[in-house]
Amino acid sequence: MAVWQFLAVLLAAVVAQAAPNSRVIGGQPTTIEEYPSIVQVEFNIAGVFWSQSCAGVVLNNFFIASAAHCFDGRNYNPADRRIRAGTTLRNEGGVVVPVLREFNHPTYGFNGNDGDITVVRLGSILNLGGTIQQASLMASGFVLPGGWPVTAVGWGTIAAEADLPAAVLKAVSTQSVDIDVCRQRYGSLASNPPVTKNMMCIGNLFEGGEDACRGDDGGPIFYQNIVTGIVSWGSGCGDRNFPGVSMQISSYVDWIVATAV
To answer: Which residues contact 70 (CB under 8 A, 6 or more apart)?
Structure first.
């Protein structure tokens, strides 16, 4: 097998391991100036090159929030992750900082995908300002009702049937889905983990085609420029029957604030 073929296969395997059920579909190109709190999480592939595979949001100069499954796995090592901030382009521009360690939520791994959220300590300071800004987080206890406007942002796969990531930052406007409806939908799939009270769902239940997708994991779901969710998992991407599932920030915000100090 040629070297480039081997690396392509290895890259796919690493991404799959980091995001086994990961989940912008139907979006439009945007810029980092519009969403300066989002960052790229890059994976080191076989010690040869780096590639964006997840996303996150800036908490302060030394911490970001992301999905726990992006910082976990059999071969996980903090040295194999780094953060790229302040750029619209995937894998290009901005500033790059190393990862020192992760603080995955203590409930992660005990109830399906519940607790799939992490606070990541950076190995060097992230200078805020301009295209790198601190995220605003939803208040503790606030549950977004179904039918409210939300926006998913990221560099993930642009089509559910392909593994082609976006070259530039994309955003899709959609809506929140009532958690009971979401739970009922996923309850019909015996192989899927439960939808818990610590999660939120998004998507278009009538036409589909609006969602986060592979590579958007750990990235933000915004409600009026406030981070209300962290992309976690789902069945497919943009499926009208199965909304995308994120960790609900309001369930974890007290822990996030206490950890990111």
So the answer is: 18, 19, 41, 53, 54, 56, 81, 118, 217, 218
* Chain position carrying tokens 């994976």: 43
Closest CA to 27 of 254, 235, 231: 231
pLDDT at 83: 98
pTM: 0.88
- Kindly list the distances between the CA atom of residue 237 and the CA atoms of 58, 64, 174, 211, in Å, as whole numbers in the listed order: 25, 25, 13, 6
Cα separation values, 116 from 33, 145, 233, Å: 28, 21, 9
Q: What is the rounded CA–CA span in Å between residue 24 and residue 231?
A: 11
- Backbone dihedral angles phi then psi of residue 37, each to the nearest 5 degrees: -90, -10
Question: Could you say which DSSP state residue 182 is in?
Answer: H
Task: Cite the beta strand spans of 30-77 per DSSP E.
Answer: 38-45, 49-58, 63-66
How far CA 183 is from CA of 19, 167, 193, 201, 212, in Å, comes to: 21, 33, 10, 9, 18
For residue 130, what pLDDT is reported? 96
Rg of the chain on CA atoms, in Å: 17
